[in-house]
Amino acid sequence: MKKRSPLTNRKLIAIFLFFGSILAFVIFAGRFSYIMVKGEVNGENLETNVNNLYTRSSVLEANRGTIYDVGGNPVAMDATSYSLYAVLTDEWSNNKKNPQHVTNKQKTAEILAQYISMSEEEIFKKLSQDLSQVEFGTAGKNLSYEIKSDIEKHDLSGIFFKETPTRLYPNGIFSSHLVGVAQLPTTKEGEVKVDEEMVGIMGIEQAYNDQLTGTDGKLKYQKDSFGYALPNEDAEVIDPVDGMDIYLTLDKRMQVLLESLMTEVDEKYNPVALTATLMDPKTGKIIATSQRPSFNGTTKEGISDLWMNLLTEYTYEPGSTLKALTLASAINEKAFDPNAYFESGMIKVSGIPIRDVNRTGWGTITYLEGLARSSNVAFVKIVEKMGADVWKEYMDAFGIGKSTNSGLPHENKGSNNYKRAIDQANTAFGQGLTVTPLQMMQAFSAIANGGQMMKPQFIDKYVDPNTGKETIVEPEVVGNPVSEESAQQTLEYLKEVVYNENGTGKKYAIDGYEIAAKTGTAQIYNPKTKSYFSGGHNFLYSVVGMAPADDPELVLYITMERPTITDYTVAPSDALASIFNPVMKRGLEYLHLNDTAQEALDNQIKMPKVTSEPKNDVLTKLEEMGLNVTVVGNGDTIVQQLPLTDEVIIDEQRVILMTNGAMTMPDMTGWSKNDVLKVSEITGIEFTFDGDGYVTQQSLEPNALLTEESLIEIKLESP
């Protein structure tokens, strides 16, 4: 076989390479032409990629709407909390003139001790650890913007702050279950998703989340390869749209008073549940409403005790306060003769006895006296005279067993099992059916408002902060169960409960004002035993009052379930009256203030800003204002305060101040549990409690040092 010469082989290789190059060029040119025409590679748009490469955009965050009380005081608002940390390593300090780590530990400790509740020695110890960076525990968390700014003024190297958007509830416990809570979402591990928007998870924050949530804007501009904005290029700006502001019907003056009184009763008698609601019956506006258990919206102290909003979700058998509705219905049907007589004590329905609270009765008495004494027998007879079907129609008309359509999450409509004769009879005095406090408030409004039943209203108006446009929420009539004449006559008879010598509501009389009222003591069904609780104070006690009785401007309804009362000289009505009387009296006074009283009201004490000020100067100032002040810490500068700046201070309210330096234990002897919890809140140290009432012992002696490891036990006893 003849071999090819090397020259021939080289020619073949050259020809192959030549035609290969031509083929590669043709393929490349075709591909390039395709890209030029189509503008994409592997499905990706080249123009979009180039724009992305040389275009920078950033989010312009919108604010969540603020919730205000009726007077424009903020109840829930956006805020930012700051956490302090220090960088100890020099690995990230590339510029010696501007170091990014702590260079002077002694000076840094000395300055920081002026602003956080740690001693100079403790801070220096933290800064001397062999770590890249350190935090400062609870003392360095949840710092205000003011404290952050004051620290930054010292230009300390290596001192930085983590910023976290939060929702601030500046009034502490303030109708917390109604107002609700909004917070940033979290991961499964509990880490806060700081890049996501806040979401309402309870109350108005949840129900009106869409209205409160704003729409983020965007800033978009062209940049060069170094990341700088190109000159003469117009930036594209989409402005953020802030969320809607909501004004509640709540009045801060009345709400603060109600919360204070509720706390006192809760601590003193430790009921399973406690509710109180004050309403304007002519409009349905809720002026104040509270419950126990409750929680602090900002610190979340107590939130795990009860998530349920008792105003709308709690159902119970109301007992004799429902007799106000039975009475109004009977008057409307001309089935109530106040001067007719009946035999009190006991009546049988389908062979089942129904008894008065006085099981032997009071003999033969008039129906008006039966009302004053709250006789069950009297009201069973009244329903018999009306007819069971007619009474059921009135209950329906009053909204019993129906939702009020409040818009709040998980509203319960209650129940009314009205099939058996005994069930029908029991409803005459508020047993055998269940209601919510809001349902009862709606029904009571018909009696207090000339027969017109008003839908309970807790939103006064919406305000668009972007345009200033206001949307007023108008009062809504939702029924007319009785005539104006019947409602007026009902009020007249309900005065007997307070002013008749045999009345069950004599403790609710208020000097200078006439009160129409009805009291109640209801059995409580125990689902575990499938029977009613018995004995002791295992009842639901309640009172509804309307004033002034001839033309009510206020309705106040209070319920208290199963209080703990060990003093035989104290009745449940004493506990209810300790809330009812001051709240109703203050509310009526506000409605009829003269110019002098209004001026005095306008001059109520507001808590001044005292943080970052010398302790001695602050003490002098607050003592001159007549305030009850307790200092936590042995430093010379105030770093935290409760109440917060501009919060209205009521009589004898305790002011807690924290100084820089080491925290010290105050002498809490005689304090209420609520005041002790203020110290827990301001220090971040959890206390444990034994008993109820007021402090008699504390495990840590006064003036002893408080640390994060401190285990503080507080013993409480009733006075």
UniProtKB/TrEMBL annotation:
Q: Which organism is it from?
A: Desemzia incerta
Q: Which GO terms describe its molecular function?
A: penicillin binding
Q: How does it sit in the membrane?
A: Single-pass membrane protein
Q: Which GO terms describe its biological process?
A: cell division; cell wall organization; peptidoglycan biosynthetic process; regulation of cell shape; response to antibiotic
Recorded hits in SUPFAM superfamilies, A to Z, give:
beta-lactamase/transpeptidase-like, Penicillin binding protein dimerisation domain, Penicillin-binding protein 2x (pbp-2x), c-terminal domain
The similarity comment for this entry is: Belongs to the transpeptidase family.
Q: Which domain of life is it from?
A: Bacteria
Enumerate the UniProt keywords alphabetically: Antibiotic resistance, Cell cycle, Cell division, Cell membrane, Cell shape, Cell wall biogenesis/degradation, Membrane, Peptidoglycan synthesis, Repeat, Transmembrane, Transmembrane helix
Q: Classify the main location.
A: membrane
Q: What does this protein do?
A: A transpeptidase that forms peptide cross-links between adjacent glycan strands in cell wall peptidoglycan (PG). Part of the divisome machinery that synthesizes the septal cross wall. Beta-lactams inactivate the PBPs by acylating an essential serine residue in the active site of these proteins.
Domain called PASTA: residue spans: 659-718
| TM region(s), chain numbering | 12-34
Q: Return the GO cellular component terms, semicolon-separated.
A: plasma membrane
Write the protein's name.
Answer: Penicillin-binding protein 2B
Which portions of this protein are annotated as coiled-coil regions?
none
* Location of this chain's protein in the cell: Cell membrane
